[in-house]
Amino acid sequence: MHLQYQVTKQRLKIAVLLSIVAILLVGLNIDIFVDEETNSIRNAGMGLIVLLLLTGCYMQSVEVKMRPVVNAVWMMAGFVVLPYVMVYVIEYLSGHDVTLLSKELFGLNYFWCQMVYALLFAVTNHYRWSVVLGSVLCYLVGGINHFVQLFRGSPFQVSDILAVGTAADVAGNYIIAVNYELLMAGSITFFAISLAILADYHNKRRNWKTITASAILLVYVAVSASYFYSDKLWNKYNLAIDYWNPLMSYTNNGTMLSFAMSAKNMTPEKPENYSAEQVKNTVQQMLDSEGNRISELGMGVQMLNTSGTSVRYVMKEPIAQTTTQSSVTMPNIIAIMNESYADLNLLGNYRTSVPVMEFAKSLNKDTIKGNLSVSVLGGGTCNTEFEFLTGLNMAFLPSGVMAYSQYIDGEIESMASILKEQGYTSIAFHPGKPTSWSRDTVYPDMGFEAFYTEADVKDPTYMRGAYITDSSNYQKVIELFEAKEKDEKLFLFNVTIQNHGGYYLDTIGIPKWVSLMGDYGHYVQTEQYLSIMKASDMALKELITYFQDVDEPTMIVFFGDHQPSVETAFIEELMGKPLNALNMEEVQKRYKVPFFIWANYDIEEAYYENISVNYLSTLAMEVAGVELPEYNQYLSRLYQQVPMLNALGYADANGEYHYFSEENELTPYLNGY
Question: I need a labelling partner for 210 at 20 to 30 A (CA). Which of 136, 561, 586, 654 fits?
Fold first, then answer.
């Protein structure tokens, strides 16, 4: 092999600049090389990173002249070897052991990395640009997945790209810093790029030959990608997305492959035999059926077990009267979805320095309460909103989608439009940015007449220097209530923001710190979360106290959107086992949040041990005495057969959990839904 090379002034300047950046990068982040267990410097790791960075910088100073044949071989080697290297880099950043992947799965991960390079080369017709951009894009997939897993406890999926605007709104409140894994993976990527781009090829002007070659390459990429998404290939390699544990799916299949797989079901398939007439028949059959032993009185509950502290209420027989009706009809309805509001005691017992949810747990009189199952964990707030307001369920939408951002592009019936038709004024309020989760376009489609945001909150207080407090949020709720006409019936839907992650921000505005007691370790994120939950409980007391003295009948529907993303180690301590060893019933515990319906007038108390959020608006409207459309009547009956279902699975009336793949007596109900 004959190579000619020389160091040029221009390249030397670039190399020197890169070397300075590399030295500063290592020097300013020297603490990441300290082993926390031994408190010693990881010399081998630091030495390897410095060597890779400086060697790569040196290669940037060299201009290499290769013979055409050698240059072509070098280019081909770059396109063959770089995707291989990037599979290792991505898996390393994702915390996975790439050696555990089968040859077939490794090959499919390699295929998707190679598709990135091929597409870029076809578009740019420039070897170096395609190599640099392709490697950077692959590194970004691994890096973003690294942080998304850290912050949210779930992997990076294609749908997250569509929610980039919402992510940008809150990204500043997370700590995104260089760590050992990022620096090691970055140095390997930089070295590999530097070695690959010693070769050079590009045509400044395209001619018919290069245009034809690019077109052929684009066709190859399109055909290959299309074949990947065919059922034939998925069946051949037994590919499947683990809907209830996507993190495990990424571990088993590889990150790049799983990321590509998450795009397969971005568009929901039309159900077999679907038509407006079939929908009407399905609803009517449920409403007319006597064989299902369904009460005509709706979602009333019957207590089956009164022993112990956990009581399950489900419908087993028609009952003489419902526990959810009241003599008051058409009260004002305030629905509050509180950000990351959860009771971690559902996962296991722990003690705190002060009570966290003291006031909320004291609410019993004129209160219906219980455990609410949702479809998201650590994020995806809009999907809980979607299920609550529409009565639809994420179980029947593709995994990882965000319903607001992807599917609502026209009018859709919701609790807001139903109440609006019956004389209510329907308004929404969120003390964040109006564009988050596309709320500014979705809410009008749902029938809301006005949408108030952070800009409408006067002199708000902030917690952790980032988010408007629940106390300021509720003051705005009260202000909106007081602004209505005396005889006006109000439906107000409020989504709070105070408890948003991440849970290692400044402690500004947290009135009372909560510490873990007993044998548990010091979990900084968990303790900050519990502390802001304490503040949330104090603010809730302010809100309820105000409405206790309001003369107009008013009902408050209160629930969390999902559990928080705190330290995995703490969750595993609570649950007594690693997260990847949880069974279906145990996993479902991580998707439960508290809810209550409280009224400032007499309603009969009830407790629901297991109900999913898609039923909650129907239950609330029944309690309020609102006339239900046929679809909500259908949901009221369906609840008595399948009281809980979410994106993971469903529970029957006996509290037993099932996967959607099971065939049993409830399958026809699920198919109809």
Answer: 136
Per the CB < 8 A criterion, the answer to whether 404 and 627 are in contact is no
Would you tell me how many other CB atoms lie within 10 Å of the CB of residue 395? 20
- How does DSSP assign 450-512, residue by residue? EEE-GGG-SS--EETTTEE-HHHHHHHHHHHHHTS-TT-EEEEEEE--TTPSPTTS--TT-SS
Residue 95, Cβ density class (10 Å: 0-12 exposed, 13-18 middle, ≥19 buried): middle
Dihedral angle, C-alpha 417, 419, 421, 426, nearest 10 °: -70
Residue type, 444: P
pLDDT (0 to 100) of residue 371:
96
- CA distances in angstroms from 522 to 36, 372, 508, 515, 517, listed in the order given: 15, 29, 20, 8, 9
For tokens 């599917």, what's the residue?
A: 407
Q: Which residues, 6+ apart, have CB-to-CB distance to 347 below 8 Å?
A: 571, 574, 575, 589, 590
Residue 301's pLDDT is what?
Answer: 43
Alpha carbon distance 98, 105 (integer Å) = 10
Question: What secondary structure letter does DSSP report for 126?
Answer: B
- Directed axis angle between helix 630-641 and helix 276-288, to 10°? 60
Q: Give the pair of three-digit tokens for residue 90.
A: 């991505």
Pairwise CA distance, residues 118 & 142, whole Å? 19
Length of the chain: 673
pTM for the model stands at 0.72
Instruction: Give the separation between CA 199 and CA 32, rounded to whole angstroms.
Output: 34
The bridge status of strand 462-463 relative to strand 313-314 is unpaired
Distance of CA 278 to the CA centre of its chain: 33
Backbone angle region of 447, left / alpha / beta, with phi > 0 → left and psi within -120 to 50 → alpha: left
* Partners of residue 657 on adjacent β-strands: 651
User: CB neighbours (10 Å) of residue 309?
Assistant: 4
**Tokens read off for 591:** 């998707």
Which 3-state string (H, E, C) describes 660-672?
CCCCCCCHHHHHH
pLDDT at 305: 31
The span from the CA of 434 to the CA of 334, in Å, is: 20
User: Comparing C-alpha atoms, which of 415, 418, 376 is closest to residue 395?
Assistant: 376
Write down the pLDDT at residue 318.
32
pLDDT at 1: 52
**Roughly how many angstroms between the first and final C-alpha of the chain, as a whole number?**
68
Query: In this predicted structure, what is the pLDDT of residue 469?
Result: 97
C-alpha to C-alpha distances, 145 to 82, 84, 138, 190, 238, nearest whole angstrom: 20, 19, 11, 19, 24
Q: Which amino acid is at 435?
A: T
Residues of the chain where predicted confidence (pLDDT) is lower than 70: 1-9, 11, 35-43, 152-153, 159, 162-176, 202-206, 242-245, 265-266, 290-327, 519-521
User: Exposure of 396 by Cβ count < 10 A (0-12 exposed, 13-18 middle, 19+ buried)?
Assistant: middle
> Residues near 287 by Cβ (< 8 Å), separated by ≥ 6?
630, 633, 634, 637
CA dihedral defined by 341, 344, 350, 356, rounded to 10 degrees?
Answer: 10
164: left (phi over 0), alpha (psi -120 to 50) or beta: alpha
HSE-up of residue 344 (Cα within 13 Å, Cβ side): 26
Q: What is the DSSP letter of 634?
A: H
By C-alpha distance, which of 606, 666, 613 is closest to 640? Answer: 666
pLDDT number for residue 86: 96
For 373, which DSSP code? E
Q: Count the alpha carbons within 13 Å of 558 in the hemisphere toward its beta carbon.
A: 25
